[in-house]
Amino acid sequence: MIRIENLTKYYGSFRALDQINFQVQDGEILGFLGPNGAGKTTTMQIMTSYLAPSEGNIFVDDYNVIEDSFEIRNNLGYLPEHNPLYEDMIVYDFLKFVAKMRKIDDNLIKDRIKEVIEVCGLKRVIHREIGVLSKGYKQRVGLAQAIIHDPSILILDEPTSGLDPNQIAEIRELIKTLGKKKTVLISSHILQEIQATADRMVIINEGKIAADGTLDELMAKFRGDTLLEMELKNADEKKLESISEIDNKIKIVEIDDSKEGAKLKLEYPNTIDPREEIFEFAVNNEWKILEMSRSRTSLEDVFRKLTVEQGGSNEN
Ligand SMILES: Nc1ncnc2c1ncn2[C@@H]1O[C@H](COP(=O)(O)OP(=O)(O)OP(=O)(O)O)[C@@H](O)[C@H]1O
Ligand SMILES: [Mg+2]
To answer: Ligand 1: does its nearest atom lie under 6 Å from the Cβ of 40?
Structure first.
């Protein structure tokens, strides 16, 4: 099990990670989701001992990254963001080079390379130069180098970013296959990516954990809300804001007031149905309702609410 405990990271005076806590269970594929600048790469770089934490620690079983970085790195495969590879090396030679760096026994290297070629589907390109490969194949090479020493943990930083839809599907399949035997932490800023591959997700935003749970748990927690969208005429913004006085469970998500009319988005738990009262409120204020439509909150809305609407990207 991986335990991230009170992890904080400063770059100078800028706090990129602020006391984050979460766990990755053995054998699970955990999605690490967050917008640009949220702190995903920083967390992964601390996990792989590339960076030191400012405060807190990461434990892998009985080891921790501050005192036992060697033991942890030995049991961990890492596919960094943007997958840096030696472009002028032949795929086979590159894998051999990584195997030697990983200190794999000389008489085992051949078998290990054979195995990763098989698992990552590299047979066709094994004698090609890495630089001439398609992005999808480069990513397979990146995954092959990450698993050459057969680690039980895989850290994949945005593994499908920049790939075309076919390549994305192939790499997702490959990750799922690898995830059957390994513990996988996979980061992305795209919800669909995490939904497609992960068993559970942790959402990070501005260096803080915003949510943690299985897809079903997050849906159940946040999806109990109804979204009501209205288009109105003759309504002024101040008065629109008072609509939540009908019931304090009604939250105003968005008010877009323009000359042509006002658009209003309301959210309330699906245990209440205040539509009649809202209609009466509108009539009493002499507003004209052009449209009123209801939908359930989607996981996409949840993600947006937990990230974008809290102040947006952390990129500085
Ligand atoms: N070496 C650095 N020096 C200063 N600030 C940094 C450094 N590396 C990252 N940051 C800042 O720390 C924050 C977190 O960055 P990080 O790369 O961990 O985010 P991320 O979630 O991986 O984002 P992305 O989706 O863009 O890859 C950002 O605001 C980033 O600008
Ligand atoms: Mg990143």
So the answer is: yes
